[in-house]
Design goal:
Helix 9 packs parallel to helix 10, helix 11 packs parallel to helix 12 and helix 13 packs parallel to helix 15. By secondary structure, the chain is an alpha/beta fold. It has a six-stranded parallel sheet with strand order 9-12-13-14-15-16. It has a five-stranded parallel sheet with strand order 3-1-6-7-8, with helices on both faces. The chain is built from 15 helices and 16 strands.
Amino acid sequence: MKTDPPHILCVNPWVHDFAAFDFWARPLGLFTIAAILRQNRVRVSFLDCMNRFHPRKANHVKVYWDGRGPFDKTEIPLPSALERYLADLNGHFIPKFIRYGALKEWIEQDLRAMDRPDLILVTSLMTYWATGVAETIALLKKIFPGVPIVLGGIYASLCETHARKYSGADQVIAGPAEPVLADLVERYTGFTLNHLPDPEDLDTIPFAALDLQNVVAYAPILTSRGCPFSCEYCASSFLEPRLRRRSAGNVFQEICHWNRNFHVKNFAFYDDALLINPEKYAFPLLERIIDGKMDVFFHTPNALHIKEISAKAAGMMLKAGFKTIRLGLETADFSSHRHDIKVKQNEFFTAVEHLRSAGFAKDQLGAYLLCGLPGQSLDEVEESIILVKRLGLTPVLAYYTPIPHTPMWEDAVKNARFDIGAHPALTNNSLFPCVRSQDDLDRISQLKKMVK
């Protein structure tokens, strides 16, 4: 058994996409793993290929008031996997393919200046960012030959077979990494982790190691894991089958930690179920924030469950400092709600009234509307946009991404214009894989203009 702590490098890979922007997007799972490692005296390094604040960046970094901002970008060739399948799209315009994140030469210089690690852990987010993961791992192997590389995260979990075959990682972990972390570290470094969180008590997990970043522009917060719903387009119930919650006190301590020690003002809730059972969870948290008179701002990019927005919830969120409210509406066709059984028309109208009465402004309120679903009528999307705008909210089009292990996956495969099972990159929502006609693609362009 090795007693000297190992050196483990945690890596957030490049994103390859047609469009990307930092909408409070941080690899929270990787930062949590890093925190657990540090709790066990492990020497942890962090390489962020997506670093908007890279030290070698001489020009001005654009930062919005809420911490968001654009990534640097480098145009790269279209991967052969996409080129082969997109060649016959009847002349449909394919935008430029981009490597988002820090320049490749900067990242290579960072790696060469680093001590050789004993183990490298790489995360992954969107499934269709697979080629960015592969490029990152290829560079890691070039600089650190022989160092074992383990890949985890969402792509690794949802496209495990593809990741094992094409990512270049020595091992792929599907599912949460915490339960297997000790075994991984011991297998590859010989070091034993003696302090591990209780999987049944989320309060035992240390605060994510966001301070590994050279700039902490905002802090992602996760008060729960899992979701009580099983929407057919979403993989949440596959990735986290059970809903587990942190205590309000523990979450409040984390917010205070980043605000007081690192002067973080903007917090983005990553929850799928922030307002579920509010009397036990959300309200006690909001009460602490309000009583603490904290000068902070909160954002809900993952959307709130509409039926849980009572007058009390709306009022407390406003007083606590919520600035960006996103509602998970999906469609305003309440006659069928084929893809969403969470909310009825009267519940939506009531929630909007509560938010407006509490004092939220129009530019703070947005409703996600799904677009590009298999067999979806674009009339439904247009009517939803009109209704949302009439109610004084901002419609936010959420373009459908086919995701393996969701109930809608098989329907997406049958309706797609090309073989989306051949490569994860073909599921990219920028390609509208389940929109079959050129007329519908043209109409979506018009719908985009409607929401502006």
